[in-house]
């Protein structure tokens, strides 16, 4: 008997197939990994940087674009290194300390793992 493949998390199609370590939906072309499948995650969200690398608490990251600081005229410059990040739920999913700015929240889409 064939193993039960999960439905597509994007369009809920039942016609998914496995291609090496990816699940693929032929209807909407969505691809996802076994680790990111809803059953495999056990309710824990995976946080990924701009390149798709998985982030963990305590990682160091680099800012990949200039970011305006809300409520200020200051800018966090591209290439700024941020050490010892904490991952949190929400739109801005990285809580960190940036030298010269203090406590900040960043979006994981604007950083890359070092």
UniProtKB/TrEMBL annotation:
Family per record: Belongs to the YjdM family.
One Pfam match: YjdM
Gene source species: Dendrosporobacter quercicolus
Keywords attached to this entry: Hydrolase
UniProt KW DNA-binding keyword: no
Top-rank taxon: Bacteria
UniProt protein name: Phosphonoacetate hydrolase
Listed SUPFAM superfamilies: Prokaryotic SH3-related domain, Zinc beta-ribbon
Molecular function terms from GO: hydrolase activity
Domain Protein YjdM C-terminal per the UniProt entry, residue ranges: 48-113
Domain Protein YjdM N-terminal: 4-33
InterPro entries xrefs: YjdM, YjdM_C, YjdM_N
